[in-house]
Amino acid sequence: MLLRAAVLLSLASTAVALLPFRVAIRFGSVRLGRRAGSVEQCVWAVEAAARRLPQRTLCIEKGLVVQRLLRSAGTAAILHYGARHNPRGGQLEAHVWVSVDGRIVIGGAEAPEFALIASYP
What we know:
alpha+beta, 121 residues, four-stranded antiparallel sheet
């Protein structure tokens, strides 16, 4: 699963960089499948692969890949996209997190600080 996560992270990075947002954000929205893999295994594989890849991976790439892996394993993961106005820098910031049955599985530490804009099943 680690190798699969690494390949998918690279593909997600490419999609985010080259495709329009409305297309790239659908990378993780695949049909529910029957592959093996628990939530913990999927999140671990993505986090471990992200630390080992030469390119920097952000929450959007990690979220897209976790969602894709979980949905491929038959788990109805939902990707959430939010934004906030940073009071220190005055900039608009975005964040992505993934939930399963209402429980955030990746990106949860920062999620409460962001206003939800959209969710993608």
